Automatic annotation (TrEMBL):
The keyword Transferase applies. The lineage of its organism: Bacteria, Pseudomonadati, Pseudomonadota, Betaproteobacteria, Burkholderiales. Keywords: Glycosyltransferase, Transferase. Belongs to the glycosyltransferase 2 family. This is Glycosyltransferase.
């Protein structure tokens, strides 16, 4: 790796200006500096841009390094990352550093990632809760094992500082431009959720070096309604908290499972969803949305999420 590395951060935001401020402040506080920060504003209506550029936290030089891309309509996280990655690649950096507005990196997060990076990297930090900073926001399952890492102590008990084959993508994920040239941009059709899974699997198929760097830390809110027990307490279900999230969760999950894991796993996921909304926690509206999402995921229909956008 050359001595001076050109890294462009890509941050997607929508109506979360204070969280975006926290994120950008952490990016500009890195021990390894980014060249630019591309902010993709998904049609925010809360005065996000004015709020950020009037903030005293940033110097004039830092504001000049922010490249603001304002979208006319909300394209969701997937559309935002697709636009952001395309714009960043046009700047010809060595690496892109991808994240949402509600997370933020520790001070040496990027430095730790760069030390283990290579020309074909798709690597991420450990993602911890932004509240207690000891539990993982997204538990990691050791590849080829039943072991699940749920807190920082679990991570630190490992013999290696690299967790092979697994990442919590788009949460401070460092991706090489050489890899992006091979796999293209994130798929904007997913709208929210699932695009990061698809992108990871495309990277894996291209031979990317995929792993989590255990001493690189990133902070993110824990998901709500995660791990609700079902099927006599033997399995758990992550219940989305809005109509659009439920629809995209069902559609995008079953689409990815069918494409990358086979029809059996897609069928098992569908049964799990239907069981939850009929036998575990009966919800007529939830069941209707879930069925719509499952059918569209199986058939590859990425147009119907528009009807649920009022709940974004």
């Amino acid at each position: 790796m050359k001595e001076m590395v050109d890294v462009i951060a890509v941050v997607v935001t929508h109506n979360r200006k204070r969280l975006l401020l926290r994120c950008l402040r952490a990016i500009f506080s890195q021990t390894s500096k980014v060249t630019k920060v591309i902010v993709v504003d998904n049609a925010s209506s809360d005065g996000t841009k004015d709020f950020i550029f009037s903030a005293s936290e940033f110097s004039d030089e830092e504001k000049q390094r922010m490249l603001w891309t304002a979208l006319e309509k909300n394209l969701g996280g997937s559309g935002g990352f697709s636009v952001g990655v395309e714009r960043a690649i046009a700047q010809k950096p060595d690496f892109l550093w991808l994240m949402d507005d509600d997370g933020f990196p520790s001070e040496n997060c990027l430095s730790k990632l760069l030390k283990l990076s290579s020309p074909f990297s798709f690597i991420s930090p450990v993602v911890l809760s932004d509240k207690d900073k000891s539990s993982l926001s997204f538990p990691l399952r050791i590849r080829g094992s039943l072991k699940i890492l749920e807190n920082l102590a679990d991570v630190r008990s490992l013999e290696s500082n690299v967790i092979e084959g697994v990442v919590a993508p788009f949460n401070g994920t460092l991706i090489s431009s050489d890899l992006i040239a091979k796999i293209g941009y994130p798929d904007k059709n997913f709208f929210i959720w699932g695009d990061e899974v698809d992108y990871t699997e495309r990277a894996r198929a291209a031979g990317a070096k995929i792993f989590t760097v255990s001493n690189s830390l990133y902070f993110h809110p824990k998901g709500q309604n995660v791990g609700n027990p079902m099927f006599f307490g033997l399995i758990r279900f992550n219940e989305p908290n809005s109509r659009i999230k439920l629809y995209c969760y069902c559609r995008n999950n079953v689409y990815n499972l069918r494409r990358y894991n086979g029809i059996t796993k897609a069928a098992l996921f569908s049964i799990k969803v239907l069981w939850y909304y009929t036998l575990t926690k009966f919800n007529r509206e939830g069941l209707s949305i879930a069925i719509c999402g499952l059918i569209d995921g199986i058939t590859g229909n990425f147009k119907n999420h528009q009807k649920f956008l009022s709940s974004v």
